[in-house]
């Protein structure tokens, strides 16, 4: 198979971001004609121009390396394992965030939403989820043998997750994420649950909570997602910290009571 050249790859990213040639050319500081020549292969871009265009299109670092290789240049950004000594400070920072967040659940996920770090509260929340569904967040949440069986508002929560996953697929074009989306949409009851969501005429909540049934008691949680601000490593660029917070007073008491129980 013929390897893709940098021009068509850049054009695909520009179209995915819904940017015109004029808009991108003005943003990066090149002429529209030169950008057109680059996209059609009539002009060979420098490594600096490839990176400038990638930055203007908000291309992930992993794909920046792909663009550089397609243009005939060496990759610019390393992709170290999280356990690599060079990432010690970043890894320690992530662990501090998770530990400080306890007794509320918190996880660190990679680009396909596999859990790479978790605090104790998150591990307790996932107790009973089959190992076959771990470590992926979407599998754990949407499979009927996972948290879906305990989720009281599955239509609402599944709709939120599928929207989030679909947006990631659209933004990245990642085939692994696209395959994951097809997989979880095929789980029994997922599409049915989403189409059974509440009427659009009902009041829209400020946040979409996750409502779990814990032995007859409801635990309601909302989440925040945080990323590194200026990553220059592919692994760090693809990590996200998802922290869960109690959505009401009874859920806060339940989480703090559960933690207290584990200390006695």
TrEMBL record:
<dbReference type="InterPro" id="IPR001387">
    <property type="entry name" value="Cro/C1-type_HTH"/>
</dbReference>
<feature type="domain" description="HTH cro/C1-type">
    <location>
        <begin position="10"/>
        <end position="64"/>
    </location>
</feature>
<dbReference type="Pfam" id="PF01381">
    <property type="entry name" value="HTH_3"/>
</dbReference>
<dbReference type="InterPro" id="IPR041413">
    <property type="entry name" value="MLTR_LBD"/>
</dbReference>
<dbReference type="Pfam" id="PF17765">
    <property type="entry name" value="MLTR_LBD"/>
</dbReference>
<dbReference type="InterPro" id="IPR010982">
    <property type="entry name" value="Lambda_DNA-bd_dom_sf"/>
</dbReference>
<protein>
    <submittedName>
        <fullName>DNA-binding transcriptional regulator, XRE-family HTH domain</fullName>
    </submittedName>
</protein>
<dbReference type="GO" id="GO:0003677">
    <property type="term" value="F:DNA binding"/>
</dbReference>
<keyword id="KW-0238">DNA-binding</keyword>
């Amino acid at each position: 198979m013929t390897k893709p050249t940098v021009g068509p790859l850049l054009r695909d990213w520009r179209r995915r971001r819904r940017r015109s040639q004029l808009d991108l050319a003005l943003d990066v500081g090149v002429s529209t004609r030169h950008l057109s020549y680059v996209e059609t292969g009539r002009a060979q871009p420098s490594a600096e121009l490839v990176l400038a265009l990638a930055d203007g299109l908000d291309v992930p670092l992993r794909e920046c390396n792909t663009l550089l290789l397609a243009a005939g240049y060496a990759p610019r950004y390393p992709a170290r394992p999280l356990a690599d000594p060079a990432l010690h400070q970043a890894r320690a920072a992530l662990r501090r965030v998770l530990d400080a967040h306890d007794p509320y659940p918190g996880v660190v996920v990679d680009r396909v939403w596999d859990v790479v770090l978790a605090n104790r509260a998150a591990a307790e929340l996932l107790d009973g989820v089959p190992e076959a569904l771990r470590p992926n967040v979407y599998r754990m949440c949407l499979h009927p043998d996972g948290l879906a069986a305990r989720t009281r508002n599955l239509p609402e929560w599944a709709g939120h997750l599928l929207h989030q996953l679909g947006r990631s697929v659209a933004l990245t074009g990642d085939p692994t994420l696209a395959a994951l989306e097809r997989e979880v949409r095929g789980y029994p009851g997922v599409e049915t649950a989403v189409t059974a969501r509440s009427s659009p005429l009902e009041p829209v909540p400020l946040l979409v909570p996750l409502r779990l049934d814990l032995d007859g008691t409801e635990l309601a949680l909302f989440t925040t997602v945080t990323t590194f601000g200026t990553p220059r490593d592919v692994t760090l660029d693809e990590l996200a910290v998802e922290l869960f917070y109690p959505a009401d007073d009874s859920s806060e008491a339940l989480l703090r009571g559960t933690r207290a129980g584990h200390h006695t």
